[in-house]
Amino acid sequence: MTSSDRGALESLKIDRAAPPGRRSFPWGWLLILALCAGGGLWWWLRPRATAVQTATAKAQLIRTAGESQTLLNASGYVTARRAATVSAKVTGKVLEILVEEGMKVTHGQTVATLDNSNVTAGLRLAEAQLEASRRLLDETRPNLAFTQRELARFTRLRSSNAASETDIARAELDAATTTARIARQEADIEVASRTVDEWKQQVDDTIIRAPFDGVVTTKDAQPGEIISPMSAGGGFTRTGICTVVDMTSLEIEVDVSESYLNRIQSNQPAEATLDAYADWRIPCKVIAIIPTADRQKATVKVRVGFDALDPRILPDMGVKVAFQSNPEAIPPPGDKTAPPAAPVIVIPEAALTEINGRTIVWVFKEGTVERRAIKTSRRSAGEVTLSAGLNAGEKVILNPPATLTDGGTARESNP
Q1: Whole-structure pTM value
Q2: What is the sign, positive or negative, of the torsion defined by CA atoms of 162, 167, 169, 173?
Q3: 5-19, 159-173, 192-206, 249-263: which range is least confident on average?
């Protein structure tokens, strides 16, 4: 073995006497353990969502045997049976208008006045002529008394032949003439009085009054305009002051196709729904079926009256009418011609909630809640009849708290 090989072997030996080297501390593992411990502590101490305790009720399926059924749907408008465009009897210039749209008026109330300067002057002239006729009569009456005394005196003188026949005839003529003149003057007074009444009527015609109790719906003229019962002055002449509608005479007019007219009869119950209030069912009944048809549209006009009026019902509103069957005319049991009872869904009214103008319910299903939009058709005695939105047997939450959220958890208090 050469010296070089021996040196190489010596370099491979471990020096036992040398001090041991320093080992590094495992900081990485310690950091991982700290993060895990912190995550576990946060999970343990985090606020846990508690399930809301609620009361529920099941949607019930019932049969509407013996109740009204919809036989026909039709559209129409609210109309006023009593409405008038208030105008004047004479042509004149509008001086003052005392009403505005929406104002209530009573029968005989003044709604406008016309310029009456011309007719007032005529009235004063007629009154002056009447006074002159009366003064003339007062002047003539003493003459009648004088002529009558003269006639009596000449009559006494005839017995002693102190008066001639000519004097007596002249006295009789004067008495008769004065009597006739007084009669004519009394007639002139009557004529003058009638003339005064005529001018008073013309003055009264310049005052325009309401023909009946109602509400002013339109104001059609302004002070300074010419108004006439006939549009004699062209397009610049008004024919009316305002329109007055008797709100107690509101009813519905609908056009019904001739093909379905056999489903309607007088006093038949119906339900009206205004386009402005889609969820409001208004009880009505058929007033009359107009006995004529429109050959152009093949329809017949039907008048429908409201059972009770409401301030929300206004003329010319769009309305839909559902003509119902008469619940009193129920066929006897076993009658095969009777229509089958229609199923409907009924839930307690306490389950309804209004959100953003929509009616919704909270449906409870296996510990979670779901917000569901529904459509109601009738409410009565704390129950609501649904036309869409729920199935029979589904549970709804009664008096739902404001903390409910769609997809949230809940606990049933009356399982």
Answers
A1: 0.55
A2: negative
A3: 5-19
